[in-house]
Design goal:
It contains 21 helices and no strands. It is mostly helical.
Length: 446
């Protein structure tokens, strides 16, 4: 699986030639981040190919052809002087991490409701039909319980794995989760950058999301990828690294294809990035517009899965059962009047411990200011993404047509995972400047 994804990801060097220039002085941390980006790009290209062609067999053949071309291009580029993506020592660590991811994910079969009745049920439908369209079964009233409008990144990947193996069981399709977990762990490892005390910022996200990484739910992966996307976007605002820009775009692309909440995260990140650029426009007038055009190419790749699945939903007549929009306004007014807002805030902010994550960030912010350092743009950006996402979820809970107490509030623990990881990313962005020169912040003069 990973050679296939690596080959597809090798097309990164074809789309983004400027990355070769950045690689020459690179270190192992940079290589780990680059390797993670290549795997994520492979996942997204594979996803878009399947959605475009629908047929599993045809899409795998096209994907394999592209993967082989990518590997050939990578080998030729390597011969021409492209530095090693990963050293022998880190290759050993990569294999060890892969085995660890297998142990985390495959120690138990699928058993949770969402895992068996939504994500991998969709994968089973695609596998047995050998088509993403599943013979039109998505629109059957009998499967309405499984939310057929949900994004299909993991179901498609699970169906492909079972298709290649020739059978479906309750363990094998979970390899699709390993395909997502390994790039996330590699990215977390890359954040160390020689500061081993930063390992706490790697351990905490994995501890937060551990049970949600192995049970077949998407919430843990949504949290990890949303947190990493937020962190890389924030770091790009500070150092303008092309790899951080690509990382932010690609990881956000996975977020868009994992759950419907990804669209809210994408809207928040896109709006904030645009706002930060407008406020400090002079810092982004570098004259090297090639990098920005490359960024646009990756944006198109990352959003292709969202658009292709959106088109299929339109053809199949699939709609989300939350019925969000203007129809939600009466429900919001009603819940604001009956005191539901206080109940929602109590559950999400207090009982689901968002107050603790926010408190850790605020204490770190006070410590940073006491040291006479301005918070980085990345810290401000990441904290705003987390806060706005929290507010967005509260608004959705107010607008939902379902019962709060029995349907939505019990899911708060996993719904708030992205908020925890985003605030952790903001805290890391504060401490990241301990021995690094930070760009001028939005706070204060430049």
């Amino acid at each position: 699986m990973f050679p296939y994804l690596f080959g597809l990801g090798s097309l990164l060097f074809l789309v983004c030639g400027s990355i070769k220039g950045e690689m020459r002085p690179c270190n192992d941390s940079y290589r780990l981040q680059l390797l993670a980006c290549m795997l994520v790009l492979g996942i997204e290209l594979n996803h878009s190919t399947v959605l475009l062609l629908s047929n599993l067999s045809q899409s795998l053949m096209v994907g394999c052809a592209l993967s082989i071309l990518g590997l050939i291009y990578f080998i030729v580029s390597r011969v021409k002087g492209l530095p090693r993506v990963i050293s022998l020592g880190w290759l050993t660590i990569f294999i060890s991490l892969y085995v660890a991811c297998l142990l985390i994910v495959l120690t138990e079969p699928l058993h949770g409701w969402d895992a068996r009745s939504i994500w991998f049920f969709h994968g089973k439908m695609i596998f047995y039909n050998a088509f993403v369209d599943a013979g039109g079964d998505w629109s059957l009233p009998s499967i309405g319980f499984s939310h057929p409008d949900y994004p299909e990144l993991i179901p498609i990947l699970a169906a492909q794995i079972a298709f290649v193996a020739g059978y479906w069981n309750e363990y094998l399709p979970k390899l699709s989760l390993v395909a997502l977990l390994l790039p996330a762990v590699l990215s977390l490892m890359s954040i160390l950058r020689g500061k081993w005390w930063h390992i706490i910022f790697i351990a905490v996200p994995l501890l937060f999301t551990h049970q949600w990484l192995k049970n077949g739910y998407m919430d843990g992966y949504l949290a990890l990828y949303a947190g990493l996307a937020t962190f890389f976007w924030g770091r790009w605002l500070d150092n303008k690294s092309q790899l951080d820009l690509i990382s932010g775009i690609l990881f956000l692309g996975v977020v868009l294809d994992l759950k419907n909440e990804g669209m809210l995260i994408g809207l928040i990140i896109g709006s904030l990035v645009f706002s930060f650029i407008c406020i400090r426009i002079s810092e982004f007038k570098t004259g090297n517009y090639v990098k920005y055009f490359e960024g646009i190419a990756f944006v198109l790749i990352s959003m292709s899965g969202l658009f292709l699945w959106g088109r299929k939903k339109q053809i199949l007549g699939l709609q989300n059962d939350l019925d969000l929009g203007l129809n939600s306004l009466p429900r919001i007014y009603e819940r604001l009047a009956d005191g539901s807002l206080a109940i929602i805030l109590k559950h999400l902010y207090v009982l689901d411990h968002v107050n603790m994550s926010l408190g850790i960030f605020l204490l770190s912010l006070v410590w940073t200011l006491r040291l006479g350092r301005r918070p980085s743009n990345g810290a401000i950006f990441s904290s705003l993404v987390g806060i706005f996402y929290f507010c967005g979820i509260v608004l959705i809970y107010l607008a939902t047509p379902f019962d709060l107490v029995t349907f939505h509030l019990p899911t708060g623990e996993r719904t708030m995972l992205p908020v925890h990881i985003m605030l952790l990313a903001a805290t890391l962005s504060l401490y990241r400047g301990d021995k690094e020169a930070l760009e001028p912040s939005l706070i204060g003069t430049s």
